[in-house]
Amino acid sequence: MSKTIIIRANEYYDSMVLMQVNHAVSALPGVLRAGILMASEMNRKLMAAIGFTDAAVINAQPGDMMIGIEAEDAAALENALKVMDERLSERKRAKESRSKRFGSLAAARRARPEANLAVISVPGAYAAREARKALEAGLNCFLFSDNVSREDELALKQRARELDLLLMGPDCGTAVIDGAALGFANAVPRGEVGIVAASGTGMQEFTVLLDKLAGQGITQGIGLGGRDLSTEIGGLSAVKSFRLLADDPDTKCIAFISKPPDPEVVKVVSDAALATGKPVLFCLLEPSHNGHGQAGGIPVVYSLEEAAVRVLALLGKEPDKKLLWSQDEIDRLGGLLASQLRPEQRFVRGLFAGGSMCLEVMAHLVPRMGACYSNITMPGALPVAQFSGNGNCFWDMGEDEFTQGRVHPMIDPGLVAEGILREAARPDVGVIVVDMVLGYGTHPNPSEVYAPTVEKARDIASSYGRTLHVLVHVCGTENDPQKLSRQEQRMREAGATICATNLQLAKLALATIEGLGK
Amino acid sequence: MKNEQEEKVKGALWGRPLSVVNVGLELFGTTLEQQNVPMVHVDWVPPASGRRDILGLLDELVG
User: Fold this and answer.
1) Which of residues 228-287 of A touch B (CB under 8 A)?
2) How confident is the model at residue B2, as a pLDDT?
3) Do A105 and B42 touch (CB under 8 A)?
4) How far is A65 from chain B (nearest CA, A)?
5) List of chain B residues with pLDDT < 70
6) pTM of the complete model beyond 0.90
7) Do the Cβ atoms of A115 and B32 come within 8 Å?
């Protein structure tokens, strides 16, 4: 056994680059464990947790890179270090070949006086500092970083308001500005629908459905981050976003997508929405029995699918009925799937890369399915352990407990794949529901991970004499870099049942379980 | 200011074409380049090598 711990002072790579390198090194023959991380406080703890700690790790500074590798023998260790250095050099060369690089935001701003947006994704401890600099330089901000304190968020948003600038985030994963995808977003056409959203994959699914169901495009998709609608922040960015869309003559109607805002903020948001003078629809991802409601005079729906259908109706457009199954069709298909299951296969497991995908499915199932367990909080849902559960369980695998020291499952679905295989072996599981999120920034070809996993999962169930149904929704468009039809085709070949919308995952899973024993 | 108003670009949220300064993950800069969005990248590193004590002093000096 050979092991090394190396600290490289003042050598900085971003977390995504290092995680990719770590992934590549860990997969090498003879490598038992690897940790290649910047020495932030959290990462130093992580290094200790995976068995790489010494005085140098304890004393490392956040600007230093930590390398810990354990291998079967000295040759494997030497090879791992060589591969790591090759990968890092490749990244360095690629970076240095960029002509439009600057050492600071101020220098970039001087060179590009016409710049109007800063996209900020530095570690959380520094994010507020960079966002403040960007605002003072007159730039609107898309703040992807998380772990920004509430106090900093409030101060930044108040400053943005004083400067008449928009701050999207912190923890803002998705926006589409002037047709450009920021963070994780899909290639959707320009059109007449404006969007204000506090949920990233919620915006992705909604924009994808508008395109898929009727070729409908959007004007702007403005992200808020998950905390804007809390009492403390008071919807400051939401209010600014509605004003921007009110002033945009191309925006004919507006959709607002979020978890339910804090009660005190509902009025603030609905007043801002009404003040636009344009038709507005709220889509709130929470359980509802009747599917319709209203908040402060604004109509409310409770699923992204219903929101897309209603917004299309506002524009006088009909959705493609071939893609939207009727309840009869769902019941028939569910009955067919149920007829292939054993009576004891009465539970559903959901493994989601997209947080809002998990929310939408649960919002439909919690009032209709009896006990549902999840790692996300929702009225009526019960908590579940990280890697095991009984009954109907739904995991949002983009939550912090799954992403410590790993990239998000939309970029690396490895942990989701492991989960699918684990659940496939359970004798009481009949249906597994899964989302695959396409678009800019996510895995370049997710079906290359998910398809063999589904094949293997079905084989595992079959080795015990069971059939397993894996229902898959691919959130994407034909113009996404991964191309929707190519991904869906590969998943069908692997034996997955494709659902055109995320809500259909919930409806078909429910119809299948209800069809057992009929 | 009046001229800027008159020259507002249709379909642009801020009246002028989108032009981005990317600070942090290279991935986001690359995806903007794929979409032909004007973009410059800041090679961000933790200021003062991440030493919070020195960073605090620097912020005080710069104001």
Assistant:
1) 244, 248, 250
2) 44
3) yes
4) 11
5) 1-7, 49-63
6) yes
7) no
